[in-house]
Design brief:
Its EC number is 2.7.1.26, 2.7.7.2. The protein is α/β, with parallel strands linked by helices. It is built from eleven helices and twelve strands. Strand 9 and strand 10 form a beta hairpin. The mean pLDDT is 92.
């Protein structure tokens, strides 16, 4: 799969293509429906499929300080899109200058001149151009002028977790912030993942017999609510069952919020400096301060046991 970091990276002579545009944070099941349709139509038409997305998130440029928590970094999104069969991903640098493009100029500059769109696939709420003035109706109106078609795909509607709302990144972020990682997984189609480099912490877990990987998460990462979770710690492609702690470590009057993962029944792991992924499968309990260290140790052993049971049940399903 091609991955372009700007319009200038698109090869000269690039032919016609089927294009879809959006932030696509999380590549959730609604996104998968749109992207999958773009891939399908591209194959039918005998042309490549291209996903256009933005970095940073447009809201950070238009309203500085409002960058939403991210469900997936760009390299992860590209990986997920490649799995859906996408031929190319174009990550457009979203600058103040770019934000000033009118909807018509956006169409010409991106879709027509560079990607030579034959067909554009979007969801019904797609907006683009200065002040988000462009919509799918306007996109379709200019289609005959520039020789491209437009197909609008309705988004999935979520189940119990979302109360019947359309699948969206906003809803997913809300569920994660509330600790409902199972509800988020229903929308994403997989467990929510947090990534980062393992750094040295206070090493109390090691002293207590439960050595954890202290993950320095990527900027703007969507981190679940404080608590203990079952999931996986993935290192160099190996996914290890894990009990995961999110919070400030109230037992020791901590103030810094951290994500720490204990690889269950793994001994002697040296992960410092490695980039790892933590997948959140299920909520185990809230973050508590115990009466004594002995009480904490009993709870930690129970957390590991419960996490193992949840992971085993998931893997059998």
């Amino acid at each position: 799969m091609h991955c372009w970091r700007g319009l200038e990276d698109i090869p000269e002579g690039w032919g016609r293509s089927v294009v879809t545009i959006g932030s696509y944070d999380g590549v959730h099941r609604g996104h998968q429906l749109i992207i999958g349709r773009a891939v399908e139509r591209a194959r039918e038409l005998g042309v490549p499929s291209v996903v256009v997305t933005f970095d940073p998130h447009p809201s950070e440029v238009v309203r500085p300080g409002t960058h939403p928590p991210l469900l997936a970094p760009h390299h992860r999104r590209a990986e997920l899109m490649a799995g859906l069969g996408v031929d190319a991903v174009l990550i457009l640098p979203f600058t103040a200058e770019f934000s000033q493009l009118s909807p018509a100029d956006f169409i010409v500059k991106v879709l027509v001149d560079k990607l030579r769109a034959k067909l554009v696939i979007e969801g019904p709420n797609f907006r683009f151009g200065h002040r988000a003035a462009g919509n799918v109706t306007f996109l379709a109106e200019l289609g005959p002028t520039y020789d491209y078609g437009v197909e609008v795909i309705d988004l999935y509607v979520s189940g119990d977790a979302g109360g019947g709302e359309p699948f969206s990144s906003t809803l997913t972020r809300r569920l994660i912030a509330g600790g409902d990682v199972e509800g988020a997984a229903e929308i994403l189609g997989r467990p929510h993942r947090v990534e980062g480099v393992v750094v040295r912490g206070a090493q109390r877990g090691r002293e207590l017999g439960f050595p954890t990987a202290n993950v320095e998460t990527l900027p703007h990462t969507a981190i679940p609510a404080d608590g203990v979770y079952a999931g996986w710690l993935t290192v160099n492609g190996e996914a290890m069952p894990a009990a995961i702690s999110v919070g400030t470590n109230p037992q020791f009057d901590g103030t810094e919020r951290t994500v720490e993962a204990y690889a269950i029944d793994r001994v002697g792991l040296d992960l410092y400096g490695l980039h790892v992924a933590v997948d959140f499968l299920a909520y185990v309990r809230g973050m508590l301060k115990f009466e004594s260290i002995d009480d904490l140790l009993v709870a930690m052993a129970a957390d590991v046991k419960r996490s193992s049971e949840l992971i085993a049940a998931y893997e059998r399903a």
